What does this fold into?
Amino acid sequence: MTATDRSALQSPELVLITCGSRKLGHRARAADLYTGPYHRACRRAAQGLRPDHLLILSSFHGLVALDDVIEPYDTALDGVGSVTAERLRQQARQRGVLELDPVVVLAGARHTALARKVWPHALNPLQGTGGMGRQIAWLNALAGIGAPDDPAAR
It folds into this structure.
């Protein structure tokens, strides 16, 4: 799937977005905790897709809803104390999102790889878009801030 294949992205049942290393220094709603530009671009794009469910894939907390109040952390994905695929699967079952399809992941390669251990069919429209700057530009386009760049045209 290329970044411009929007038909596969229309009205997904679940969109997972990346967390981010930039955070507030205190307990807050997840919607407010993550302050980095990549996370914000992923969230704007995800909201533009109008999914049935939108969750943050936190490297520490796992699946987090925007209204969940959580503590800040400094845990990288695959680091000590980070969320595992089994924990993520348990959380997905508890939240009632384990069997959803389509699932779209707006995140980097490591978060997407973890999500695909739970949702092997998950779509990753950012694959092939290039580095973080290009990904943010494409996410902004998906959110309606510009025209998406087709990585197949490069």
Observations:
- The CA atoms of residues 23 and 30 lie 10 Å apart.
- Strands lie at 14-18, 28-29, 53-58, 62-65, 69-70, 103-106.
